[in-house]
């Protein structure tokens, strides 16, 4: 496979010429080998070669859109900025990390159009030998496939080698379906009561929002006071806070269109919210308009939004301190769903409460609960069928004639 390469030439002491070898082209039946040059100042050959690598990278990312010269690094350099506006920040950060850690170190200067499935196989094999799991190798594969698919849509490429891969990294072996941890309503009520007495909301209020209303961690952190109508008992889910590696926060739309919804506030949550809002109002007056200007329900002492990672960590520490079963903060949402199933709610109702886009998503996640519902429905049907058969048997059973005439006729 050809790479975009180059060389350095010393013109005079301290002056070097960088020569980039572009892909050969045919013009008028003759082969041409185009090159690009740049003259730079460098203290020696090592510095000049380092500058050459930067020059090649610049050509790849900004100038080489011809399929004959577009490298994998150049493809990534165009793809990542272009899709940034259409991907969630965490997804974009994930793509960047896969490119930086795994793909570009192996394929950066390769001509993208000449990458073959065998080259991807070699990359995945090298990663496997380095100890990377099959699941992680599938992430690499998905990133390469997404980048090439974008290149095809933009007219930069005509083929996706990841789509032609006959044997991509194997999927994770089937494991027993995970049983989600759950917090019962009774246990949650005891925790909430303790929290309300102590007037602490760093853990208790989020616990109620997730465990009693089914909010996700990012939705809890993104909740603002103008999203809550206490008198009407309505909570508007309008945004989520998403945290990318490095701790940077991004305000984004809810996970799906169905996730943006108006939810009824449980009656038991009204008073804790009123108390928390009173505390917020007092701090706003005491600290001035610069404290929590966006009006987040969950805010630090400095008035900044609580980060999802920090909330999850605070909940984990709370569970350890209080000898609770080690369930994650997200499992509070699963607790909410499990408790709704246990209360007799049907699948579609739980789907809408969780704000899933499809009932199949709810059924897949809560397979054990839906199987229980199916078993209960089957048992009810069995009882109905048995009762109907018994009733039909009673109606159709012939009535014995015990009269004398009946006996004579029978003889």
Q: What does it look like?
A:
This protein is mainly α and 411 residues long. Helix content is 52%, strand content 11%. The protein folds into four domains: 1-63; 65-171, DNA polymerase, domain 1, CATH 1.10.150.130; 185-360, hpI Integrase, Chain A (Orthogonal Bundle); 366-411. The chain has helices spanning 45-62, 72-83, 89-107, 117-129, 134-153, 185-198, 204-213, 217-222, 267-287, 308-321, 330-342, 347-354, 359-365, 367-396, 404-410; strands at 5-12, 15-21, 25-27, 30-32, 35-41, 228-229, 234-236, 240-243, 249-252, 262-264. The strands form four sheets. It has a three-stranded antiparallel sheet, with helices on one face. A three-stranded antiparallel sheet has the order 6-7-10, with no helix packed on it. A two-stranded antiparallel sheet has the order 3-4. α2 (72-83) crosses α5 (134-153). The longest helix is centred in the C-terminal third of the chain and has 30 residues, at 367-396. The protein starts with a strand and ends with a helix.
User: What would you call the shape?
Assistant: extended
The low-pLDDT segments are 173-177
**How helical, in percent, are the residues?**
40-55%
Number of continuous helical runs: 15
CATH top level assignment of the largest domain: Mainly Alpha
Strand order of the largest sheet: 1-2-5
Output the CATH topology of the largest domain.
hpI Integrase, Chain A
**Mind telling me which CATH architecture of the largest domain this is?**
Orthogonal Bundle
Number of domains: 4
Question: Could you give the order of the helices and strands?
Answer: EEEEEHHHHHHHHEEEEEHHHHHHH
Structural class: mainly alpha
The main β sheet shows up as: 3 strands, antiparallel
Computed over alpha carbons, the radius of gyration is 32 Å
Average pLDDT confidence is 82
How far the N terminus sits from the C terminus, by CA atoms, comes to 102 Å
Strand content: 5-15%
Report the strand count: 10
| CATH 4th-level superfamily of the largest domain | Intergrase catalytic core
